[in-house]
Amino acid sequence: GGDHTITYPILQAVAEKHGPVGLVHVDAHTDTGDRALGEKIYHGTPFRRCVEEGLLDCSRVVQIGIRGSSYDPDPYQYCREQGFRVVLAEECWMKSLVPLMEEVRKQMGDKPVYISFDIDGLDPAYAPGTGTPEVAGLTPAQALEIIRGCKGLNIVGCDLVEVAPMYDVSGNTALLGANLLFEMLCVLPRVQTV
């Protein structure tokens, strides 16, 4: 629940215990802006703040499903300069993400990892109940492949953000969000599933 600003204090607490962590970040946006409306803490800035505070192991950050409009000719430059792997939505279209997640597991290794999932990473056809929808996103099946592909990682926390039920009269966004959170719980270390 909440907007993506909530991830910033969570990662402060996680890093206090584990040191800089890897990040599997699913989103339509990189959330690495510097300011919005004059504010440095905003749902479009949390991962820049995390980089500035040394909360992330930047060589182990992957952002999946990134797309949408921008005010910058190279909106992903900052992320790449930090060493993030940016996987654009168009690189995911019409295919399974199982091979991608095999690469991500190798990249993350056995060090601590945090999963942060913005519901707008999914196409608004499936999850319209969010404040900043962007067309041509991931499918629910791809979302499951990403989360299930994290099984075996040293996951120290996770979140699912930006669900806004009032924007979805069908209730499908909340249903999808709840199921994705359940899937995240199932891939936590030492959780036994049938």
TrEMBL record:
Q: Which UniProt keywords apply?
A: Hydrolase, Metal-binding
| CDD domains registered for this protein in UniProt | Agmatinase_PAH
Per its record, what are the GO molecular function terms?
Answer: agmatinase activity; metal ion binding
UniProt KW Ion transport keyword:
no
Q: Which InterPro entries match?
A: Ureohydrolase, Ureohydrolase_dom_sf, Ureohydrolase_Mn_BS
Q: Which Gene3D superfamilies match?
A: Ureohydrolase domain
GO BP term, pick one? putrescine biosynthetic process from arginine, via agmatine
Instruction: Note the coiled coil stretches, chain numbering.
Output: none
Query: Pfam families in the record, alphabetically?
Result: Arginase (PF00491)
Family according to the record: Belongs to the arginase family. Agmatinase subfamily.
Q: What is this protein called?
A: SPEB protein
Taxonomic source organism: Herpetotheres cachinnans (Laughing falcon)
